[in-house]
Amino acid sequence: MRNLEKINRLVIKVGTSTLTYENGSLNLKRIEALTRVISDLKNSGKQIVLVSSGAIGVGAQKLGLNHRPKTVMEKQAAAAIGQTQLMEIYDEFFRRYNHLIGQVLLTHLVLTDRKMHNNAVNTFQTLLEYGAIPIVNENDTVVTDEILFGDNDTLSAHIANMVHADLLIMLTDIDGLYEENPNDNPQAKLLSEISVITDSIKKMAGGSSSNRGTGGMQTKLEAACIAQKSHTKTVIMSGDDPTKIYGLLEGEHIGTYFDC
């Protein structure tokens, strides 16, 4: 059963398809709404880590590309250009609500190297103690493996473990996990709650529904499995209207809830 009213520490992951329009440009209206909701939740006493994709997509748009970069080198260059603009936008919006942000760029080496892992944990803890909002992305500009992992889904779950989050919210371009692809079958049923991620559940997950993101439902299911290791609950929900996060935390059955 859902019981999210007493959630205190959240990791919110937002994907490229939620942050941008079909042409790759930033959806400033949605970003503004998301930062306002996060700021309001912080005002209520909650601690939040934001895991944000979008750097490669934004960089590609700045470079004038009409497609997502295909080679690793192109993606790294686009990330280097896009990351700065993305953080500038976040800083501008969060400053309107008097909240500090801190940029954290991680590689998957942090997950396997004990010293680096502990340093990252300490950094997150200190930022949260200072009242700042850590904004995390994979360090796409200096490594290649991360670009292949899938739009920060896996990383967000590991971060949820690192900070001992109560809840991981994954904002995407679909309402949650359906029994069938809703694009193929408009009558497909949305699964509201999942207690065990079985092989049949995994088969329901398809690829990315957007050409702007690299993640898909499969990587989100993997993230839910990872998050459960620290007893972190997971919700996959649409990011079209960030204000629905309020309803989610008030007990409304929004998205797919993983109580694994």
TrEMBL record:
Q: Where does ATP bind?
A: 13, 172-173, 214-220
GO CC annotation: cytosol
Gene3D superfamilies (UniProt xref): Acetylglutamate kinase-like
Chemical reaction(s) catalysed: L-glutamate + ATP = L-glutamyl 5-phosphate + ADP
Q: Which residues form the signal peptide?
A: none
Which InterPro entries would you find in this protein's record? AceGlu_kinase-like_sf (IPR036393), Asp/Glu/Uridylate_kinase (IPR001048), G5K_ProB (IPR041739), Glu/AcGlu_kinase (IPR001057), Glu_5kinase (IPR011529), Glu_5kinase/COase_Synthase (IPR005715), Glutamate_5-kinase_CS (IPR019797)
Listed pathway(s): Amino-acid biosynthesis; L-proline biosynthesis; L-glutamate 5-semialdehyde from L-glutamate: step 1/2
Pfam families associated with the record: AA_kinase
The protein's location, in the record's own words, is: Cytoplasm
Q: Which GO terms describe its molecular function?
A: ATP binding; glutamate 5-kinase activity
| Entries under SUPFAM superfamilies matching the protein | Carbamate kinase-like
Which keywords are on file for this protein? Amino-acid biosynthesis, ATP-binding, Cytoplasm, Kinase, Nucleotide-binding, Proline biosynthesis, Transferase
- Residues annotated as binding substrate are 53, 140, 152
Query: Where does this chain mainly localize?
Result: cytoplasm
GO BP annotation list: L-proline biosynthetic process
Q: List the EC numbers from the record.
A: 2.7.2.11
The broad enzyme category this protein falls into is transferase
Question: What superkingdom does the record give?
Answer: Bacteria
Aspartate/glutamate/uridylate kinase domain location, by residue? 8-237
The family assignment reads: Belongs to the glutamate 5-kinase family.
Role played: Catalyzes the transfer of a phosphate group to glutamate to form L-glutamate 5-phosphate.
HAMAP family xrefs = ProB
Full protein name: Glutamate 5-kinase
